[in-house]
């Protein structure tokens, strides 16, 4: 068995165990393989093990990979990095999801630029839940307003929320922060019928995220190994 295959087996069983512990079905939890900085050959190995959902952080790198795998229509591509307005067209034309909406202007451009030939781009609003150093994401107090503005745009479809909490190794502290996301998600769900996705949980907080209702975990390191940014 190659390493990526073994890693995927381990991550899936980790998700199963975490889901069982809190009485959830692991079928409610999508595994997003975060392949940023990794070569197409690594993605190919993951595809060979049945992985279909991939996450990329850098627009051009992601678009190159989407084009490389264009013949494989089973794949679903998620943009999960910070998005500047001069790059929205590439995301609108190539990706299936964007997790990092934190202003109306970006949402508006994605909606306008989404080709008519494609279904609406699925989007998540990014919440800055705990990381005061991060400029990405809105505060929870701004959520109702932004959701109302985004939900009427025809080229995109609001599906839920995403967060990247500040790094924290203590499980109980992870839960404390992630529970706030769970609450906000449930409130949003009660207002909008399409809301079904809570994107949270990475290699180091996957278990806490699942306990707090995550429906999509974004896992890079545990699948593809440590990233080397030196060549970027
Ligand atoms: C890189 C990244 C991940 C994956 O992180 P790991 O700790 O390697 O699992 C998940 N989400 C986002 C937004 C990322 O940028």
From TrEMBL:
Q: Which CDD domains match?
A: PLPDE_III_Yggs_like
Q: Where is the Alanine racemase N-terminal domain?
A: 8-227
Keyword line: Pyridoxal phosphate
Quick check: keyword Ligase in the entry?
no
Tell me the residues on which N6-(pyridoxal phosphate)lysine occurs: 36
Family matches, as PANTHER family:
PROLINE SYNTHETASE CO-TRANSCRIBED BACTERIAL HOMOLOG PROTEIN, PYRIDOXAL PHOSPHATE HOMEOSTASIS PROTEIN
The free-text function statement in the UniProt record for this protein reads: Pyridoxal 5'-phosphate (PLP)-binding protein, which is involved in PLP homeostasis.
Q: How does it assemble?
A: Monomer.
- Give the family from UniProt: Belongs to the pyridoxal phosphate-binding protein YggS/PROSC family.
Listed name of the protein: Pyridoxal phosphate homeostasis protein
